[in-house]
Amino acid sequence: MSLDVLYTISSTASGGGRDGHVKSATGRLDLDLRPPKELGGNGEGSNPEELFSAGYAACFLGAILAVARGEKVAVPADSTVTVTVGFGKTATGFGLNAAIAASLPGLDQTEAESLVAKAHQLCPYSNATRGNIDVDLTTSV
User: Fold this and answer.
1) What domain range is 99 assigned to?
2) For the chain, which has fewer Cβ within 10 Å, the N-terminal or C-terminal residue?
3) Where does the pLDDT of residue 1 fall: very low under 50, low under 70, confident under 90, or very high at 90 and above?
4) Are 3 and 34 part of one and the same domain?
5) 14 exposed, middle or buried (CB, 10 Å; 0-12, 13-18, 19+)?
6) Residue 79, Cα to own-chain centre: how many angstroms?
7) pLDDT, tens digit, 9 for 90 and up, residues 85-133
8) CATH of the domain at 30
């Protein structure tokens, strides 16, 4: 895929990967990573899946807003996107799945579902994961 890069950012992990530290080049993200209790850790830090779900949720809501602007649809200010990321074993290692729940209160259900479907085609996270992980979309109004 050809990409006209508009922005780059890097982050560095140290000290043990999932049980270490991560810091972005800007320094705005600077935190300890700890495996969740469900995976045998103490759960007292963030983890890659938590960071992925946060980034995906923010990006997907931004994609909804971009699609809505293009279609001249007013998206209510209290709209939300929640992305739940699952981590588990596969036949060859480990994998992820995601469930995206968009809430667009006050919009017509059909219109809201259309915005979400189009956002799923636009969102860079959706494009990066398409065909690689299972993603479930739900829309409520």
Assistant:
1) 48-140
2) N
3) confident
4) yes
5) exposed
6) 16
7) 999 999 999 999 999 999 999 999 999 999 999 999 999 999 999 999 9
8) 2.20.25.10
